[in-house]
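Lay summary. Proteins are chains of building blocks that fold into shapes, and those shapes determine what they do. In this project we predict the shape from the chain. Here is one chain we studied, written as its sequence of building blocks.
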Amino acid sequence: MTTASAPAKILLLGEHTALYGNPVLAATLDIKAVVSLSRRRDKETYITAPSLNLDRVPLGRYQRGERLVKRALDFFPSGYDIRITSEIPIASGLGSSAAVSVALVSALAKEHGLSLPKEEIARIATECESMVHGQSSGVDTYTVAYGGVVLYQNYSVRERSIRNYPSIVMAHSGIESETIDLVSKMEHNRQHNKSGFETFLSKSKALVLEGLQSLLKADWKKMGELMNQNQDLLRQIGVSHERLEELISAALDAGAYGAKLTGAGGGGVVIALVDENSRENVSKALIDSGGKIIDGNISGEGVMINGK
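And here is the predicted shape, written in a compact code that computers can read:
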């Protein structure tokens, strides 16, 4: 049996721009999805996923991720017993499907005696991810494959030297975030307001590049300001939500340096940049506003196979 794990991710700056060639700042978390698998003598594949109440379900009945798994099996044809466990909330903006894709591809490759570089794992996983969300920008899969705080652009991790990890608090809004719907909304916006969309991309890029410098300098006050400005852009283009705005306001009022949605938006998770003096107050404010705290911190780990 082969086991691989891959982490959740957050976007610090740059949502909805990677698909159009913009740079994005992303980071992995210390919460993971784990895929364990072994090859069968026949060509049948069975999925066990306790969080989805699946127990040795034939692949054709694994509706939520069937196309993702089938695409991965195109690269590594055989029959398998696959077990998926995950600490990552689904449809939250934390990259649950990307983590499963990357862990699955890594485990499949290892089961076939292959040691693929992270770039190749991410490339294949991006194809799998596209089966779930439509055309994938690759930011989630590449980030979780490499790990840490990264600058991502055009199917490549451009910067991995960031060693200053900001301290965050995360809270779920209680509303699921459907990536494919929001990506379609953004493309509609681009088609019907090209000049406005170009302005959005230009402003977002400037925030990301300034954010990179803030991270390298560990200037958390400036980073928080940039997060707030990014949230303003996301609100203006219509991918925020009333519940997200309530949680963001609560976090800022409680002393967070900055707060914003992460991922596609429309629901999902809010991230708040804090220090040790404000962490407890921000957490309490988010809970009091109806958010569900997600325990997790930014981590340097990417995909791992059999614990290595």
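What the prediction tells us: The chain has nine helices and 13 strands.
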